[in-house]
Amino acid sequence: MSIPIRICPSILSCDPANFADPVIAMEAGGVDWIHLDVMDGQFVPPITFGAGLAASLKDKVETPLEAHLMTLTPDAHFDAFIDAGCTRIIFHAEATSHAHRLCQSLRRRGIEAGIAINPGTSVEVIRPLLNLLDLVLVMTVNPGWGGQEFIPECLDKVRAVRAMSPTVAIQVDGGVDPKTIRPLAEAGATDFVVGSYLMRASSSADGIKELRSACG
Ligand code: DX5
Ligand code: ZN
Question: Which of 64, 84, 170, 176 is the most buried (most CB within 10 A)?
């Protein structure tokens, strides 16, 4: 049986001197979101890029942009990424005591609200927020770097979130490839962030096709 999935390529493994060309190629390959990994050097050690990049990419593609904020102060960056044209913002549960208020503030502005949980964080933090969430991001590696190995224990977390809500979008991020995507989809994941696998594929279009066909 084929499982409907959304592919959300991350640009983290691209050459930072040229983000535009791979993003244009990803769009041509048929993707659902462009996933921007924003790291502040504090929540996670590396620093990547800011809202200026989102604004520049917004002019080049029609695919919606989402910001995955790996930052200690998520709401300090909401305005900049919304103004840059991101229509989904995902922040980390571990970075705030006020996840409920932050989701409310995104929803009020017509932005899809997503919360990410690290591999070491219990899915229970999600339960009181479900009515306010468009998406739950279950990290399948520890955040900060592309190219890490998928952590298989995270499959149970995906199942647990799906058991809490039959409808919420469940995104997975880290180590997604044609081998891991099928069990993740069967566990209930709907949105797949893919970084280094697409860079290894012969082309974005081929890689995206492989991922979709792995799900039937
Ligand atoms: C990790 C990032 C991911 C990363 C995934 O902190 O959030 O989006 O780019 O990369 P791969 O697919 O290489 O694991
Ligand atoms: Zn990410």
Answer: 176
